[in-house]
Amino acid sequence: MPEVIITYETLYELLRKEKIRTELQNLDPEFFKHVITYLNDKEAILQSQSKKDNIFASAELEKTKTQLKNVQTILKEIYEKRESKIVQAAQFNARTNSLQDTSAMLPEEETLYNELLNTLTSFRNGILFSLLSKKMPDIVKQKDLKTENKTDTIQIRAIQDIPEFVGPDLEVYGPYKANETMELPEKIAQNLIDNQQAEKNENT
Fold this sequence. Notes:
The protein has 204 residues and is mainly alpha-helical. It has 2 domains: 8-127, Methane Monooxygenase Hydroxylase, Chain G, domain 1 (Up-down Bundle); 151-200, Ribosomal Protein L9, domain 1. 56% of the residues lie in helices and 9% in strands. The protein is built from 6 helices and 5 strands. It has helices spanning 8-20, 31-50, 55-96, 107-132, 145-149, 186-194, and strands at residues 153-158, 165-166, 172-173, 181-185, 198-200.
């Protein structure tokens, strides 16, 4: 892959694309490294120009200062546009439990996305699911969403009639009749056991 050249124009074009397109734009994996190199080069030029003492150097110095300030503004806007898209993706995933394409995210951005997703899902389960289960909110931080998504199931047997209810994934479960066996996600099954509505099926 050819080396990416960062210029004022390429940064401005990237910001323009992030603004007009809904999807996250692909960046070079070493985008941050290239940006830092660009900023250091501009700072070096600024230092060099400040040492010259003539009218032309003064004009160039002000031009470089203005461009550097504009670049900093552009970088802030690029970050905030991408941040907004990442937040929206995490919100959508937390609400729908659907897989999101993270290929356009830089490693640091994917970490942000996973942290947001873990937190949103944890609070959604702890508040919404608790309320739907007629319980006070109970927030438990999820350790690892990727592991959490691979939900283990437990086979249980209803010890009484269980009316229809909504699970933490907002899926509808039930109704179940007394003595009916069913295989449910571990968290939902354990909740029914804790409420003395079901017990583990010892025949499994």
